[in-house]
Amino acid sequence: MPLATWSCSLAMCLGPNMTMNEWRLSQRMSYQKLAEKVGASHAAVARRWCLPAGHKDRMVPARKFMLRIIEATLGQVKADDFYRVR
What average pLDDT does the chain have? Predict the structure, then answer.
């Protein structure tokens, strides 16, 4: 693996942990803009990713979206953040 890729990956792993909704709000981003940024089909999909743990409509992103979310948030939102209870 090239050093630049490794460094970027390492930085992503060490960044602060945020929920998807915390990150979205910190960026002043609508659900629609979030959906567009990661290639989701509708704002409703992004909204479901942002719902609190335990909500009946909450959804964990599929792997392809999870990778896009990690990249789009520069590692501030990671896969385990969707499983962490706050």
Answer: 86
